[in-house]
């Protein structure tokens, strides 16, 4: 399949028929095989009924319906789990993203070799109360992420290689930073294309000004996880050590100053009468707490199931007894049944000799972790998976 289009939606019943017809028209004209996954994010109108009707008319249209509203990121994650196309396109359901851009985005992925292409709505039809904060937000995101060539991180119209969406986990409100997530996963060839922004035709915007505050908080979170997620002591330990050292130097100075005045015959007061003593003591306490926070973080990381989970692009193996599974692009493509049977036979022999303590431990949960069972939204209904 050439293209999968993921469309998260919330109360967009009016625009869905027009959007579906527009996508079909573009795909037919370009000769692409495609699927459209419409993810109903707990709409309170009849959006899900519209999706079901569209599926009856066009089997390329599939859908998933959440029991309640979870947000755009869970909707995208659910769509990414189900996509089958070589190229994945995401777009909003409000008709502000033009499906006419799909062929050009597809060519940038397939022919130019980009891992991800983000749209840039250079000319926007939004009020200044929205465009000015957006520019500030994008400037900050460029600086923090190091992706200097993107001007519109939050543009809903993006194109990805299939393997990109299979290697990233979009959660919370992290859909704003999918390029940053892709970069952290090792997909560094990220491009941008100027796309047409259309004024909203139906309904109203579902986002308020609070998204800018939440966006900055999410950006700080993502930056911290990227830089110190697997080594928290490097942040908390360093900061705590500096705070403790400053407090120690300060309290030493206060004590030394009192001793000097005592032996010099000058007037002196108790160190507890000096505000600098309590400031120094506070620095030492905070420094200790920060250091212990880093230490506890290291303990959590050491016992984390994914502490040694790394993105492997490819692997060459020889022989029959290498592993229980063959992994390609992060997916289990073949279970080595012969090795597994040999293992069971060997373990049984050890058990028969009452030597169980020498049997190597087999952890089937590792395979479950590799497949992944986190970030699950409660799905109420789904269409398009009859086959």
Question: How does this structure look, described?
Answer:
With 387 residues, this protein is of the alpha/beta class. Helix content is 46%, strand content 13%. The chain is built from twelve helices and ten strands. It has helices at 16-30, 47-57, 72-82, 102-110, 128-145, 162-167, 178-184, 210-228, 233-264, 275-302, 337-352, 365-371, and strands at 3-9, 34-40, 61-66, 87-90, 116-120, 158-161, 190-194, 325-328, 331-335, 379-383. The strands form two sheets. Strands 7-5-6-4-1-2-3-10 form an eight-stranded mixed sheet, sandwiched between helices. The relative contact order is 0.11.
Q: Distance between the terminal alpha carbons, to the nearest Å?
A: 15 Å
Shape: elongated
Number of helices: 12
CA radius of gyration is: 28 Å
Give helix and strand order, one letter per element, not per position.
EHEHEHEHEHEHHEHHHEEHHE
Extended strand count: 10
The biggest sheet, with number of strands, parallel, antiparallel or mixed sense and barrel status, is:
8 strands, mixed
Low-pLDDT runs of 5+ residues are: 355-360, 364-374
Percent in strands: 5-15%
Structural class: alpha/beta
**Cross-sheet strand order for the largest sheet:** 7-5-6-4-1-2-3-10
Helix content: 40-55%
The pLDDT mean sits at: 81
